[in-house]
Design a protein that fits this description.
5-stranded mixed β-sheet, 3-stranded antiparallel β-sheet, single chain, Immunoglobulin-like, alpha+beta
């Protein structure tokens, strides 16, 4: 009986642990509207933050150390932005910025712990979180020269 109770307790604890986990918002099949709905945005007159890349531009070629600049706005104000870099299946939260203009200095030779070879396509994801906690993101793809 004690063994059964121990197993039951383990199952309950694991269930509670995973119940609190959020879905992976980096899933490419998850739409921006679905993410906004999960965060409480996009309904009842609420709006999601508007986020875009100022530089670099989608499809551009990058080399060396560059400045990645993001523009973000919301009627309730922006709390912060973040930059995610994806090389292949490796995701890297590159940084957060809470002050406009939202800028990141990126050495295009690497993404956190991953070396980026010439000719590699890299996905950049800018995410904005407004002061209500609603998020939105946009992606661009650049090629490492």
């Amino acid at each position: 009986m004690k063994r059964f109770n121990l197993h039951l307790l383990t199952i309950v604890l694991i269930t509670l642990l995973f119940a609190g986990c959020k879905k992976d918002t980096l899933n490419p099949t998850t739409t921006q509207t679905e993410i906004a709905m999960r965060k409480g945005g996009g309904t009842g007159g609420s709006t999601v933050p508007v986020v875009s890349f100022t530089s670099p531009t989608n499809g551009s070629t990058v080399t060396g150390t560059i400045t990645v600049q993001v523009s973000a706005s919301s009627p309730v104000g922006i709390k912060n932005t973040s930059l995610m870099i994806t090389v292949g299946t490796s995701n890297c939260l590159f940084g957060n910025d809470a002050t406009s203009p939202y800028t990141y200095t990126w050495d295009t030779n690497s993404s956190c712990l991953t070396t980026i070879k010439a000719g590699t396509q890299v996905k950049l994801r800018a995410t904005a979180t407004d002061n209500n906690g609603t998020t939105n993101y946009t992606d661009i793809t650049v090629t490492k020269q």
